[in-house]
Amino acid sequence: MKVIAAYLLAQLGGNSSPSSDDLKKILNSVGAEIDDVKIELLLSQVKGKDINELIAAGKEKLASTSCLSFGCVANNASVVVDGGQVIVVEEKKAEKKVEKEEESDEEDFNFSLFD
């Protein structure tokens, strides 16, 4: 994501074809870790393509996918994706029963202020 953000920042800055050095400068300016492999992969994937068309195509893909709402999943459940199927695995926690000792009112009155 950092590399994509750097690429988009270079585009917004007016550089229609940023190089790996341009992206490295942007990443260095914010102290981000530089991964040359990811930079070269991104640049090879977007070479010769218009960024506005790429964003529009990405929006279409996102719109066509169905979203899963995790709001209905309990806090003690895990969601596992297995072969395209979403499986909700509930983890049962051992409940600790803390028994509170009930104090009787009689114990509170077993003292005298003048003893």
Order of helices and strands: HHHHEEH
Write the CATH fold name of the domain at 2-48: Arc Repressor Mutant, subunit A
Strands side by side in the biggest sheet: 1-2
User: What is the strand content?
Assistant: 5-15%
How many distinct helices? 5
CATH architectural grouping of the domain at 2-48: Orthogonal Bundle
CATH class of the domain at 2-48: Mainly Alpha
* Shape verdict: elongated
What is the helix fraction of residues, given as a range? 40-55%
Number of strands: 2
What is the SS-derived class? mainly alpha
Task: Tell me the Rg in angstroms.
Answer: 30 Å
Q: Summarize the main sheet.
A: 2 strands, antiparallel
Let me know the average pLDDT. Answer: 75
Primary descriptors:
two-stranded antiparallel ribbon; elongated; about 10% strand; 5 helices; Arc Repressor Mutant, subunit A; about 120 residues; mainly alpha; 2 strands
Question: Could you characterize the architecture of this molecule?
Answer:
This protein has helices at 2-12, 20-29, 36-46, 51-64, 105-108, and strands spanning 77-82, 85-90. Helix content is 43%, strand content 10%. The chain has a domain at 2-48: Arc Repressor Mutant, subunit A, CATH 1.10.10. It is mainly α and 115 residues long. Strands 1-2 form a two-stranded antiparallel sheet. The protein has 5 helices and 2 strands. Pfam families: Ribosomal_60s. Plays an important role in the elongation step of protein synthesis.
